[in-house]
Design brief:
Layout (H helix, E strand, L loop, with lengths): L13 H10 L17 H13 L4 E5 L3 H17 L13 E6 L2 H15 L6 E4 L2 E6 L2 E6 L9 E4 L27 H5 L8 E5 L2 H10 L4 E6 L4 E6 L6 H10 L1
Parallel strand pairs: 1-2, 1-6, 2-3, 6-7
Antiparallel strand pairs: 4-5, 7-9, 8-9
Helix pairs in contact: 2-3, 3-4
Length: 251
């Protein structure tokens, strides 16, 4: 059971979630601005809490938006709480967020919004990369052409839009109303991830099943139908002394 490995957020009503974000002075910003997708407060609350409750230090996000701001805000809270307690951990990109998107317009909008809400000091590492059709284990997938050299302990998968993926393989592509997202980027970096890593997939049930069936390490998987999320926890044995310290810190 994944609940034995990570702490899941308490269930809250929409009014309780609004009060939660009001406490952090965020609610006044989490509104429909007609330029981006309307914020899903329940999803944002769960992301924020998962990062805080499980002491996450470095995040990788596929697809930018409201989640970008919430992830970075949660990491900043953790930095204030634990920044002085991690000197013995081998971490380079502590409390940083790396966000990848293949649409420059949304990257720019999110960049402007994040600076307005979080301030210029809370910098997000935005990465633009085309996303193309490709293969993984002879299955048709999509992959970003460029990935950052980072080892995250929290990954949030909510991109790309399958309609925005370029190219085709053997004539097949995802720019079709009945074809769903099928990202393989996390599978490519799986060998580098440390035990204790958490992955959250927003919606994208078919993609979650694809990841589950192609992962080669020991992942615990939970499908949260009520919140339309899938959560993975890397339950491998510790890789060594430093990883043991990291796992101890997370507890």
């Amino acid at each position: 059971m994944i609940e034995k490995k990570i702490t899941l957020p308490d269930k809250k009503s929409i009014n309780q979630i609004k009060q939660y974000f009001n406490k952090y002075n965020l609610m006044k910003y989490l509104k429909d601005d007609e330029k981006t997708i309307k914020p899903d407060l329940k999803d944002l609350y769960r992301i924020h809490q998962l990062i805080i409750l499980n002491k996450r230090m470095t995040a990788l996000e596929f697809g930018c938006g409201w989640s970008t701001i919430i992830i970075k805000h949660a990491l900043s809270i953790n930095q204030k709480k634990y920044g002085k307690n991690i000197s013995k951990l081998r971490k380079k990109n502590t409390f940083e967020l790396f966000t990848i998107d293949n649409q420059k317009k949304f990257l720019k909008l999110t960049d402007v919004k994040s600076k307005k809400i979080l301030g210029k000091k809370n910098k997000v590492n935005f990465i633009f990369s085309d996303c193309i059709m490709s293969k993984f284990n002879e299955r048709f997938t999509t992959t970003y052409k460029k990935l950052p050299a980072v080892n995250p302990d929290f990954i949030y998968l909510d991109g790309p839009d399958p309609m925005s993926v370029k190219g085709s393989v053997n004539g097949f592509h995802t720019r079709h109303l009945e074809l769903m997202p099928m990202s393989a980027d996390i599978l490519k970096i799986e060998p580098f991830l440390v035990p204790g890593t958490i992955i959250v997939v927003d919606g994208r049930t078919a993609n979650s099943v694809f990841l589950k069936n192609n992962f080669q390490r020991n992942w615990i998987f939970k499908r949260d139908e009520f919140n339309d999320q899938s959560i993975f926890y890397l339950n491998d044995q510790p890789l060594g002394k430093l990883n043991k310290l990291q796992l101890k810190f997370w507890k």
